[in-house]
Structures are given as C-alpha cells and as structure tokens.
Design a protein that fits this description.
alpha+beta, five-stranded antiparallel beta sheet
Amino acid sequence: MEPQVLYRVCYGSSEPTPFQRSLLTVRPAILHHHCRHKVRGCDYPAIIPSLESSVRGTYVRGLTEGDIFRLDIFEGGEYERRRAKIRVLDVEGNEDGEGNVEGEEVEVETYVWVAGEFALEAGEWDFGEFRREKMQRWIGGREEYEDVDEAVRAHGEDPTRGRGANGSITKKLNRKQEQEVMKSAV
C-alpha cells in the first residue's frame, strides 16, 4: 500500500504528524507466488496467488488493533486478510525489480482478493500510473472530489468504490475516529 494512503486510513490524513509517522515502520518488500491485477473499472489492484509471479509492496510494523480495524474496513469484503511470508528488501531496485536485494523473511498478514478473478483485468496493475494519475483521489487534495464525481457521472461507478478521500468507506472511517475521540474525551 502506498504509505500516504496507509496514513490516511490509519490517521485520517495522508500527511501525518511526525509523532504519528514515528509509530509505523514502512519498508519495501516482495511477496513471492502472487500477482497483482487491476480490478475492472477501479483504480486499485488485487493480489491473487500465482506460482510464477511476485509482487512488490510494503512491509509495515507498528500497526495497532485500531489500525488493523480501519484497514479491514477500508479493504472491505473484496479482500481477506491472510498470513503470508514476504522478503524485506535491503536494497530497493527500479519498478521492474531490477536491482532489488532481498533480506530477511518475515511472516505477515496481507489482503488477498476473494471477490473472483472475473472482476480482474488480465494485465499487471501499474503502480507508477496510479501514483501519477490517480493517487489524489485516495489521499485528498483539491481536485479529488471533482475527479471521482466526474468518473461517477461518466461511468456510473466510483473508481475507488468508496475508498477515495470523499468515499463512503472513508466517511465510515472518519465517523469511527470521531467516536473514538469522543470516548477518550469523556
């Protein structure tokens, strides 16, 4: 997961405070025996088991039960949290993986697509394209609402499926965070 999206889900902002940033350790990693596809009509990917492929992603340490609760809401019913083994990258190569140097193996939990392969496009999801063209929908910014609204008008679907900065899942996460703040204030 892109760290800015992770921070928005866990902390409500893609730009966390230095203290919040210090709570998590985010490192690049490789998940072997899985591939990543674009979900049809959406901005985001899905990973599924595949013996011939590997997926580059992030290894995150320091997540609390509350963070995992928010991530579960964010990922929704299309994904299932499963145990897997990853290799942390000691050296991060280019987008094609050239130059990667794998380090220690770590057991983790990751979100695996369970909503059916029929909903996936055949090719690999392009992380670079997501960062350049679509990430603002996910982390917030001046135009993200306009982009999502335009996509909904044009196609009748939200390309973030409620996960964008102004989507229904994000609103649910924000309500949950507000409730937690109110409980702690009483």
